[in-house]
Design goal:
The complex is a heterodimer. Chain A is α+β, with helices and mostly antiparallel strands. Chain A has 13 helices and 12 strands. Chain A folds into 2 domains: about 75-200, no CATH class; about 250-450, MetI-like fold. Chain A has helices at about 15-50, 55-60, 65-75, 215-225, 235-245, 250-285, 290-310, 310-320, 325-350, 355-360, 365-405, 410-420, 420-450; strands at about 75-85, 90-95, 110, 120-125, 130-135, 135-140, 150-155, 155-160, 170, 175-180, 185-190, 190-200. Chain B is mainly α. The chains are: A alpha+beta, B mainly alpha.
Amino acid sequence: MSTLTAPPMAPGDAARINAGQADVMARHRRAVLWPAGLLALVCVYLIYAFIAFDVPGLIGKSRLDRGVLLGLDSIAYKVHIEKNLRRDQLEIAVEGERAAVYETPPDWVTIDGADPMTSKIDIDMGSGYRFVIEGSSVTLTGPDLYEPLVITSTEDGVEWSGATPEWVLLDPRKVEARPSLFERVQVTSGRILVFRYFWGWEDFWFDFRSPLSGLSAGELWSLAWSDDRIDAEVSNAHFIFDEFWGNPGWQHGDVFKALLETIIMAFLGTVVAAFIGLPLAFLAAANFNPDPVSRFAIRRVFDFVRGVDNLIWSLIFIRAFGLGPLTGVMAIALTDIGTLGKLFSEAIENIDNKQVEGMQSTGAPAVTRYRFGVIPQILPVFISQSLYYLESNTRSATVIGALGAGGIGLKLVETLRTGKDWENTLYIVVLTVIVVIGMDMLSGWLRRRLST
Amino acid sequence: MTAQTITSVDQILEHSSGLEKRRRLYSGLFGAIFIALVVSGFIAAEEMNSGGFVQGITSFFDYPSAIVVETWEAGPAWFGLLWTYFPALIETVNMAAVATIFGTVFAMGLSLAATRDLGVHPVLVPIARRTMDIMRAFPELIIALFLIFMLGTTPVPAIIAIAFHTSGALGKLFSEVNENVDRGPLEGMSAAGASWFKRVRWAVIPQVLPNYTSYMLLRFEINIRASAILGFVGAGGIGTELRKAISWSNGADIMALFVLLFLTIMLIDQFSGYLRRRLVGSSFMLAS
């Protein structure tokens, strides 16, 4: 067994170690202080931005309740039961659809009598609450009501009696009760309105009035194969498809066409940009274009078309070519000629010149030299960058579309503008996201396949 | 094993020319499908468009030339417009900057969660990756329009929308950087018993920070454009001014806004290009 013994310290060693340690500590302090200072700067900037954008004022004015309702509206639909005392009318209908009126009441509404205006209407709200409309008043019973709340619509206002929980807004002109987000009653002078919400998208597959409405998947399947035609003109399978495709509330056919338009915009825009950008890139590459003046000019053109952005180009093109995918194609193509041209010219400048020289030594003409000496070297960059931009252009195409060029973006803005059909908005958003993710995966897959 | 056994030179030649033929057939087929797609796409686009290509190309220069003429007519007063719209430009740049800062912070968190072997629970990795995919795919415009409906027409909805998209886009790039870190320092820190936070802070961050910064600057550039675009739907800044000018057809104003936007994008492009070359090109030390 040998024991480790420290060598005796030379006179200067302790000082050297101390100095080294001090140096390390100083560097460590700098390493801590430097990012901390930067962070502090960022924080100061954010405080400035917080004030400049008036965030406190914004929080005061924001309508978060709108967001909740909007979220609910996009994943649920409501059926309303409206009793109009002035016009002697009772209507049970799906809200938001013009033609979705129930001829016979659904099973959660019981009307005991022939004339709906005089008989008792018993509405089971599904969650333990029960709203009963009788004459000009509605009686609410439920788990958190110790006694029934009776709201009566009179000639010049609204009266009430009974329990008044927190969720009732009492006003002599309008009483609104909303025990939860899914049931709601509104009483004004001369009108009683009950809403019941249901999860899901109503009539997504078929229109409310379509003969196929409410059929299960199994029933549809057997119907599609049966010879007993619903419409004598066309086969059942065809009829089912037509009913789905032409569903007036959801417009599946139109939405599909709009999606296709957007994909066409992205695809053609990228293709045109890649095939125009490639020859121009040779003119911008120092090893193929010895003239510095034209090279500089081409490069600045690339910068310009890239810098203006495809949105602004699309605004100019809309004036010239009108609304539609062609406008989007031109805008995307023009911007990406700049981007792809720049990327390609960098790739061309970085090629290995030995292959070109080898071809030249065998006496190959210029075309052959390019074809076999240059193209194989830049092809991977050409393909991978083009595919990458195809994916990002799909997203740009939605935005360009929203500002007028058409396609799914415009469809989206149309549904947003009405501010009522949030379920349609969500539907289009989901489709758009699926298409963009699909394009991303496709381009990634192709890139991996082609690069090996 | 393949059944074919090659015994003579002729067979080798035959085999290789067969392969060559097949390769040509495939690339020919691929080319044909590609051309068919392009041609049919153009026919479809031409049909769907409200105006045609031929009459469009003749009137293409009408609008830009009208803008130039109006700018010329405005004379020296035009330079005053540049000053008038300068605050709007500042607002747009601020929107982009704030969105980039928040986006980067979220992206760092997401990318750490999306990297294998960095000490996060393996279940988190695919979840974080899919989250980033979805965040990236969401067009900013949709989120901005939704938030404008809730919060009113201010820049904040646009900032949130851009930050959301930025988190996904940067997160993906950051996680690719994280995958490529040198694991030596990380192992050294673990051996010394450093906590997870300290390992990330001293073994990962110094390695990835130059690339992070470079990507962030690139994103800042993109976000300036994005915030100008979102201005069109009422989020404020230069986009809103541009929309007003375009709908009132004020050629001089349109030109002033174009010039401002173009100059800003070019300036930031140059500056960030320079900074990125400095950061990634040289060895960037945190302590220096």
